[in-house]
Amino acid sequence: MTNKLVVANFKMSMDTSDVNNYLKDIATLDNKNVVICPTSIYLPYFLKKKFEVGLQNVYKEDLGAYTGEISPKQAYSIGVRYVILGHSERRQYFKETNEFVNEKIKACLKNNLKVILCIGETKEERDLLKTKRILKKQIVSCLKDLKSIQNVVIAYEPIWSIGTNITPTNAEIEDAITFIKDVVWELFEAKIKVLYGGSVNENNIKSLNSINNVDGFLVGGASTNYSKFKKIIKEVTE
Ligand code: 13P
């Protein structure tokens, strides 16, 4: 057993019958290094099992008149232990800024939730050789004024790699992860887990998992098919 994390981000895929089938497939999964983040309405079906459950987003307040939102306090109270924040799809489609993500991170940590903070550059930023500048800005802004980052995990997700079947080279991922860990050390003198996400699948996981400093993976598409996801879990955590 390793201490690496494998996180499934189902996004908005699967309807009720898909979820029921998936639950049958996953019935024997016994691994606390696996975090399943279903679409929030299906989350209760995944609770009280032998793996962890996370949300794909939360709001920054504990309670109140915020139609359609879920609070960190509510999430913790039902048994959620992880929250994905700052995903590029939330930044792109819902206009979430680093500052807003920072407020949500603080709200989660206050409620004892572990945060999986997503950062990553666009294709254009990469082509302009701005990757490290963008990553540093995201880290500094999203983690601003945190007292402790013990419950923060960062997921490096290059935006151009999400859902495209294109991944950076292993050397590029290793370099980005080293950079992220260095920036965090500079700011907090603390070590955190850094995951890689973006087109991780059952075929490339062996190679990706051989990257020296990677502490796990955040998996989108391939996590929604349990026979594929199972291979990823096995490769990374056993
Ligand atoms: P894919 O694995 O489908 O590329 O998605 C990655 C992702 O966005 C996980 O959060």
CATH class placement: Alpha Beta
Largest sheet, spatial ordering of strands: 1-2-3-4-5-6-7-8
Largest sheet: 8 strands, parallel, barrel
The CATH homologous superfamily corresponds to: Aldolase class I
Q: Helix tally?
A: 10
Q: Kindly report how far apart the N and C termini lie.
A: 5 Å
Low-confidence stretches: none
Topology as H/E string? EHEHEHEHHEHHEHEHEH
Structural description of this entry:
An 8-stranded parallel beta barrel has the order 1-2-3-4-5-6-7-8, surrounded by 4 helices. The chain has helices at about 15-25, 45, 70-80, 90-95, 100-110, 125, 130-140, 170-190, 205-210, 225-235; strands at about 5-10, 35, 50-55, 80-85, 115-120, 150-155, 195, 215-220. The protein is α/β, with parallel strands linked by helices and about 240 residues long. Helix 7 runs parallel beside helix 8 (about 170-190). It has a single domain, classed as Aldolase class I (TIM Barrel, Alpha-Beta Barrel). The protein is about 40% helix and about 15% strand. The protein is globular, with a radius of gyration of 17 Å.
Tags for this model:
eight-stranded parallel barrel; binds 1,3-dihydroxyacetonephosphate; TIM Barrel; globular; 238 residues; single chain; 15% strand; 10 helices; alpha/beta
Short description:
It contains ten helices and eight strands.
